[in-house]
Write a structure and sequence with these properties.
alpha+beta; 1 helix; 4 strands; 22% helix; flat
């Protein structure tokens, strides 16, 4: 979009045991992001998935 809005503001981020972070999905809603994170957590032992919202300035942040 050219009006400066972010159309997929929710990120699903995987954090590994060494603290490395990887974006695994971008979503339009928090609910969608939570469903993806829940599904991914069921498949892998000891994986941490975080939900973050991209702010208007492009920075990641917790909701």
């Amino acid at each position: 979009m050219s009006d400066g809005t972010i159309t997929l503001p929710w990120l699903v981020v995987r954090r590994d045991d060494n603290g490395n972070r990887y974006t695994v999905s971008r979503c339009a809603t928090r609910i969608e992001a939570e469903k993806i994170a829940d599904r991914l957590e069921r498949h892998g032992p000891n994986q941490l998935y975080l939900i973050e919202r991209i702010q208007q300035n492009g920075q990641n942040g917790s909701p």
